[in-house]
Amino acid sequence: MSAKFIDISKAEMVFNTKKGQFHALANVNLTVEQGEFITLIGHSGCGKSTLLNLIAGLTTPTGGTMICNGREIAGPSPERAVVFQNHSLLPWLTCYENVYLAVERVFSAKESNKQLQERTWAALALVGLTAAAGKRPNEISGGMKQRVGIARALAMEPKVLLMDEPFGALDALTRAHLQDELLRIVAATGSTVVMVTHDVDEAVLLSDRIVMMSNGPAATIGDIVQVRLARPRDRLALAQDPLYIDYRSSVLEFLYHRQGRPAQRAA
Ligand SMILES: Nc1ncnc2c1ncn2[C@@H]1O[C@H](COP(=O)(O)OP(=O)(O)OP(=O)(O)O)[C@@H](O)[C@H]1O
Questions:
Q1: Which pTM was predicted?
Q2: I need a labelling partner for 189 at 20 to 30 A (CA). Which of 16, 34, 51, 157 fits?
């Protein structure tokens, strides 16, 4: 276990807009350990996606440093795979081909076609989609599309899995099912995960730590809840667990009462 697998120090993000500069993130400091599951939660527009995009290397911070696995984050990399809310699959390719494309990009220089095919099948099996391998995105459900997105990300064997509200567009039952599946997959792969969510129950169920962000502009990390619930976690048993209920209340209290403005809390 490396103590600081991701190390974000004094990160700032200022966007240039038509109306002038917009200070989205201010003084964000966060370290993530290898194998940790972190969720980012906060009110709409506070900067969760902005922070995730910085870790993904899709945007560059205007200040501070961002380190992953001992190196400065200098752009997107297969070692930091992203799963978005709207699956972003290529519609003209089958599920298999969508995953294979990512596998090929990462491993084709060193591995045979047979090995690439095996990786693709293994990733599809991990999310329970072997039978749907030959279908195109318009022939499968929303939940299945998200599973292909997750398979595609996992197939790259990323050091970090970055997820931006991956289940946000799904109905409650499909969402619960995919959360359970994600718990199982992460337990099996030991992945480090940073996930954006709006859902307090999702955050408590999945996380080792819940990073709660203050409202913008100049949003920052308001507080962090360490979730000390044993794994594997069972959603039905947890619903009655006083510790679970306490964690849930802490997050709700932050979101609805403290509103996450450190300057106001200190006053
Ligand atoms: N490229 C950009 N240019 C200008 N402003 C931006 C840009 N991207 C994000 N912002 C602004 O930065 C703030 C944070 O946006 P972000 O999408 O990170 O919030 P969020 O917490 O992920 O929101 P939501 O929960 O609604 O998805 C918002 O005020 C948004 O308008």
A1: 0.92
A2: 51
